[in-house]
Design goal:
353 residues, alpha/beta, Inosine-uridine Nucleoside N-ribohydrolase, Chain A, 9 strands, binds calcium ion, Ribo_hydro-like, Inosine/uridine_hydrolase_dom, Inosine/uridine-preferring nucleoside hydrolase domain-containing protein, hydrolase activity, hydrolyzing N-glycosyl compounds, IUN_hydrolase
Length: 353
């Protein structure tokens, strides 16, 4: 009798977490995190989204899409493909910015293939996604969802920050209604991957990055490019991760199978020269920090600003630990990660389906 009750209670909790039904009284106050993911869904975003989907303490309110690793239509399709693999298609997906605020869109053919997911998936031209995409534009949806859940939403930004910049211009009070903000992007040592000094997400829309770091005065955690590269995992772990007997693992194995960014030949990836060889699931670090803050073992709290000018410095994030800029807001720049805890989280996440 008693065990049956708890089985039903656990089942109910599982369904609530996935948005399949409404929470029981009291459950909403459990340590549940309400999350919005803003993404330019490439391969690392796919893994990051799966980590968030699999987290037992997270409810994803919506996923907003932005150009970046592919054009925004492809990004929407990629997100839906990830949700489908994980059996989570009830989560609403919103289409957002197709380009940066000021400059023209740079070439989208980056290291995750022309479609962002390694150019191996069939049915890319399916019209199904257009029927499933939400009618609301991503920026409007972001503002609405945050206003409906004031003080409770963790916003996770995994792509260029254009949607976030537009949102704060439409609703300047938005940052103070957020619980916190997690960003994968920028740099902390002056090294970049798209230019000598700029990381991809920040470099794709320097103006939006500037706006977000100036105007989102909520608690902010940043996983920079150098941090993620320095926290790389062994390729042996990657093999163990994607060779699990699950649908999600097979999906990750497939989309990484022909992608040169996952090549182990030394010298193909710039990061190998700077940080040594290894598997770097960039966006997943930002999601992991949101899911379980103990994954991040060291951060530096300081003022930051994005350089918008310059032949070499445009898009670079500058750390200002002595606060010569005299900014009132400081962010947490991640420095070290618990590799074992992070690895375990990734491995468990791919057992979602
Ligand atoms: Ca991304």
């Amino acid at each position: 009798m008693c065990s049956s009750f708890y089985r039903r209670l656990l089942l109910k909790f599982w369904r609530v977490q996935r948005g399949i039904c409404q929470p029981l009284d009291g459950f909403v106050n459990m340590a549940q995190k309400l999350v919005i993911i803003d993404t330019d869904c490439g391969i690392d975003d796919a893994l990051a989204i799966i980590v968030d989907l699999a987290a037992p303490n997270v409810k994803i309110l919506g996923i907003t899409c932005c150009f970046g690793n592919a054009d925004v239509d492809n990004v929407c399709q990629n997100v839906m493909r990830v949700l489908s693999v994980c059996g989570q298609t009830q989560i609403p997906v919103f289409k957002g910015s197709a380009g940066p605020l000021v400059k023209a869109v740079r070439s989208l053919k980056d290291h995750f293939g022309t479609d962002g997911l390694g150019d191996v998936l069939e049915n890319r031209d399916s019209e199904i996604w257009k029927n499933r995409i939400q009618k609301d534009q991503a920026v409007h949806a972001m503002i609405r969802l945050i206003n409906e859940n004031q003080g409770e939403v963790s916003l996770i930004a995994l792509g260029p920050l254009t949607n976030l910049a537009l949102a704060v211009k439409l609703d300047p009070t938005l940052p103070q209604k957020l619980k916190d903000l997690y960003i994968m992007g920028g740099n902390m040592e002056g090294m970049g991957n798209v230019t000598p000094c700029a990381e991809f997400n920040f470099g794709m829309d320097a103006e939006s990055s500037y706006i977000v770091l100036e105007e989102y005065t909520c608690t902010t955690h940043i996983a920079t490019w150098e941090f993620t590269c320095r926290s790389k995992l062994p390729w042996e772990f990657f093999d163990e991760l994607v060779n699990q007997d699950t649908s999600a693992a097979r999906f990750m194995k497939k989309i990484t199978s022909k992608c040169w960014a996952f090549s182990r030949d030394f010298g193909i990836n710039k990061k190998d020269f700077l940080f040594g060889q290894g598997f770097v699931p960039y966006d997943a670090y930002a999601v992991a920090a949101c899911v379980d803050s103990s994954v991040i073992t060291e951060s530096v709290e300081c003022a930051v600003r994005v350089e918008m000018q310059g032949e070499l410095g445009r898009g670079m994030m500058v750390l200002d630990p002595s606060n010569t800029l005299n900014k009132g807001h400081r962010v947490f720049v991640m420095r070290k990660c618990d590799d074992l805890k992070f690895s375990a989280m990734l491995k468990t996440s791919l057992q979602i389906a």
